[in-house]
Each structure stands twice: as C-alpha cells, then as structure tokens.
Amino acid sequence: MTKPGILILCTGNSARSQMAEGLMRHAVGERCEVASAGTRPSLVRPEAIAVMREIGIDISGHRSKSVDEFTGREFNYVITVCDKANAACPVFPGKTVRLHWPFEDPAGVEGSEEERRAAFRKIRDDIRDRIQEFSSALDA
After folding, report:
1. Which one of 3, 6, 114, 124 is separated from 35 by 20 to 30 angstroms, measured CA to CA?
2. Which of 10, 28, 49, 78 is catalytic?
3. In angstroms, rounded to a whole number, what is the distance separating the alpha carbons of residues 79 and 86?
C-alpha cells in the first residue's frame, strides 16, 4: 500500500508552502509523502528557514520547485496556500482532494528585520494551526 501524497502549492514556493511542507512533514511523520511546489518558483526565503528553525524544524535543505515537476503524479491532497496558486493550480490525475488555505504573504511585509520575522512567525503559526486540524482529521 502506498502512502497518501500531499502537495502544497504557492506562487513562489519560497515561504508559505515551504513552511507548510516542513510543518506537514512534522505533523504526519511517515504516514504521508509530502512535497511543495510553486507556479513560479524562486528561492526559499531565509526568514522562513529562520522561523522554522526556532521551532526545531529544519527546512534549510529545501529548494524551490516548479509544479511542473509533479505533472502526472497522483496526490490524495493538493493544498493551495495563496489565491494566485489556487487560480493557477493544474488538474492532477486520480481522486485528488483540493483544499485552499489562503494565508497572507509574509514576504510582502516591509520594515525592520524584526518586523519581517514577526510576520513570518505569525504565518508559520497560522499554518501550523491549520495543519494540526488537518492531521487530526487524517487520524479520525
């Protein structure tokens, strides 16, 4: 039996989807295969790496990936974490459940380094809360 697959999509695959991938892997452990991608991939934001490290999750080895890398693969769940990715999300084969969890983009926050980090922390915590609910539902 293969593990359920979860793909988390965002536009740049630089912050929200990267944090969500790390948090989802932490929450579901070995029960699921988890990946993230972007409709226009860029680079993983250092702020995302830093705020994840604060809670003991290392995403420093992650890379920004294109959703095209996953074309033709089957996923049980495709979760979009921004409106642009939701609108541009391709169709995946099989019985994929699409979920849309819109989160603000912390990369768009301007200000001091601490103000930017605070924005990343807030989104990280919001994503963590949503993933905890999702993970609990998987266990039910």
Report:
1. 114
2. 10
3. 8
Alpha helices in the chain (DSSP H): 16-28, 46-54, 83-88, 113-139
Are 51 and 120 in contact by the 8 Å Cβ rule? The answer is yes
Report if pTM > 0.90: yes
Active-site hit among 82, 85, 107, 123: 82
- Residue 32 known to be catalytic: no
List of domains in the chain: 5-135 (3.40.50.2300)
Give the integer Cα–Cα distance in Å for 15 and 19: 6
Among the listed residues 89, 119, 127, 131, the single catalytic one is 89
